[in-house]
Structures are given as structure tokens and as C-alpha cells.
Design a protein that fits this description.
Blueprint (H helix, E strand, L loop, with lengths): L25 H14 L2 E9 L6 H14 L4 E5 L7 H4 L8 E3 L2 E3 L1 E3 L2 E5 L15 H13 L6 E7 L6 H9 L5 E6 L3 H16 L4 E12 L6 E2 L6 H8 L4 E7 L1 H9 L3 H4 L4 H15 L6
Parallel strand pairs: 1-7, 1-8, 2-6, 2-7, 8-9, 9-11
Antiparallel strand pairs: 3-4, 5-6, 9-10
Helix pairs in contact: 4-5, 6-7
Length: 294
């Protein structure tokens, strides 16, 4: 006998949306079905985390998403850094606005990629988002439930730094996540927070795909020599101590800063540079950790 459809996405009667939980109200059950019907159309979901701000998490998220899109994958990039949405600037989309339809919100499209950010909803890019936790949680849920993501191969989520309400809500709402990529800089004061991020992932049952050490040395734009301005190896050592993969190190390259300021993805517009090649090698490792890689 053919399975009865639970939502508009699949006919799997064993799906978690098939049955209302004992502690759920009808409204909560309806909301959960709506969320699951969007998320199960997305094959792989990866969150990019950092223990603290300013380590280049958004740079990693943008270039990971763009690399996947350039390889022919259907990609969504979700920026839920509510207080510091940098994705629109880094992709040259600051003046874009979101359109609504009867089915929900339409993400901004770029290349083979769909992008959503709180930055698209601000009347002025200089406006500060002064919200308490419940409002932020509501917007994150809306981005997952009401945005018309459609069928995607990958959803890359740029999470706020730390281990607070927003990352927790993400990990609870997107279930299951394929895993988390954790970004740090090499000095101990930043790398020590990697331990907290890894512990956070373990507590919420999210696999750690690996650690990336960003700003690991400075690449001279003239001779290409790498000078280690910051002490190197902090991310690699903690990854080994915590028994998670170390994905690689990305040096400080003036081209990365320039591409972000110009609204262009570094891995696309500086593809032949040694740093972009290193970045692509790291991205290939992220894809190889996916047990259901397509």
C-alpha cells in the first residue's frame, strides 16, 4: 500500500512529522511540519561556528558556499548573525531586498546560490538590531520555515559566534545537521574557545566536521612568503587534543580582505592564487567528511 503523505515533500510514514508529540499543541505540530517540509528538501546542512567573533567565520561560510555552487551544486547560504550580518557586503548584495509571496520569502539569488540574511530586511545598513532572545529565535525560525529554499544540495549556515541562544536554536531546529565546521585563529586566546565549541556540538549531538585555523601567517603580496605574525598551530593542537579532524590552515592574504570589501567571493575571483588553492583543499575535505556525499 502506498504511504500516506504527511506533508508536501515526501510519502514516508515513518518521518518524525507523521505523528504529533505528546507535549505538542496543534499549533506547534503545524509549525514543526512546516519546518520539516522545508528542511527535508535540503540534502546536506552544514553550520559554520566559531568560539568568538572576528576569526573569519563568515569568510569561510561565503567561500564554502560559493565553491559548492561553482561545482554545480544547488546551494543556500543563510546568515543568522543577527547583530553583525556581513554576508550581503561580502557578496555585493547590500542593496538587495527580499520579496514575499503567498508561499513565503524569496531569497536573493546569486550564481547557483540562494542567499538570506537579516541584512536584507534592514531599512538602513547602519541600523543596529537591538533585540532580546525571543525575537532573535523567532527570526531564525522564520528564515528556516518561511524562506522558499526549494530543493537544495547544501544549506550553509553562518552562525553567530559563541555557544548561546542562536547557535543552540539552529542546532535544535535543523535536525539532523550533517555537521559543524569550527573556525578559529591560531593564537591561544582564540583557539581555546574551540574546546567550548566542540563541547557544545557534542552536547547538542552535532558532528564536528573539523577545525579550520584562519589567519595562519601572512602571505606577502609581492614574494608570496608566509610570515607567522601570530603564534601558529593553536587550532591544529586543540583539534588533536579533542580528537576531531583538523581541516587545514588559511593564511592572511590581502586578496581575501580586498575581495570581501569589493563584494566578490575570494575563491571565485582569485581561484588561481595559492591561498585559494589551499582553501579549496579544505573545502574538499569538508565534502569528503560527508558520509552521504553526492
Amino acid at each position: 500500500m502506498e504511504s500516506k503523505k504527511v506533508c508536501d515533500t515526501c510519502g514516508d510514514s515513518s518521518c518524525s512529522a507523521a505523528k504529533k508529540k505528546n507535549d505538542e499543541s496543534p499549533e506547534e505540530y503545524t509549525d514543526r511540519i512546516k519546518l520539516l517540509s522545508k528542511m527535508c528538501r535540503i540534502q546536506h546542512k552544514i553550520v559554520v561556528l566559531s568560539g568568538k567573533g572576528g576569526v573569519g567565520k563568515s569568510t569561510v561560510a561565503v567561500n564554502l558556499a560559493m565553491s559548492l555552487a561553482l561545482s554545480g551544486k544547488r546551494v543556500g547560504l543563510l546568515d543568522v548573525d543577527i547583530h553583525g550580518p556581513s554576508i550581503p557586503t561580502m557578496l555585493g548584495l547590500e542593496n538587495k531586498t527580499i520579496e514575499g509571496t503567498a508561499g513565503g520569502l524569496l531569497p536573493v539569488e546569486l550564481e547557483n546560490m540562494k542567499v538570506m540574511s537579516i541584512g536584507f530586511l534592514l531599512q538602513n545598513q547602519d541600523d543596529a538590531v537591538i533585540w532580546r532572545g525571543p525575537m532573535k529565535m523567532g527570526v531564525i525560525k522564520q528564515f528556516l520555515t518561511d524562506v522558499e529554499w526549494g530543493d537544495l544540495d547544501y544549506l550553509i549556515v553562518d552562525a553567530p559566534p559563541g555557544t548561546g541562544d542562536e547557535p543552540l536554536s539552529l542546532c535544535q531546529l535543523i535536525d539532523p545537521l550533517d555537521g559543524a565546521v569550527i573556525v578559529t585563529t591560531p593564537q591561544r586566546v582564540a583557539a581555546v574557545d574551540v574546546r567550548k565549541s566542540i563541547s557544545f556540538c557534542r552536547q547538542v549531538h552535532v558532528p564536528v566536521l573539523g577545525v579550520i585555523e584562519n589567519m595562519s601567517g601572512f602571505v606577502c603580496p609581492k614574494c608570496g612568503e608566509v610570515t607567522h605574525i601570530l603564534p601558529a598551530g593553536g587550532g591544529k593542537k586543540i583539534a588533536a587534543d579533542m580528537k576531531v579532524p583538523f581541516l587545514g590552515a588559511i593564511p592572511m592574504d590581502p586578496g581575501i580582505a580586498k575581495s570581501g570589501d569589493e563584494g566578490r567571493a575570494f575563491i571565485q575571483h582569485y581561484a588561481s592564487s595559492p591561498t585559494a588553492i589551499l582553501m579549496q583543499e579544505i573545502i574538499n575535505k569538508i565534502r569528503s567528511t560527508d558520509k552521504t556525499k553526492n
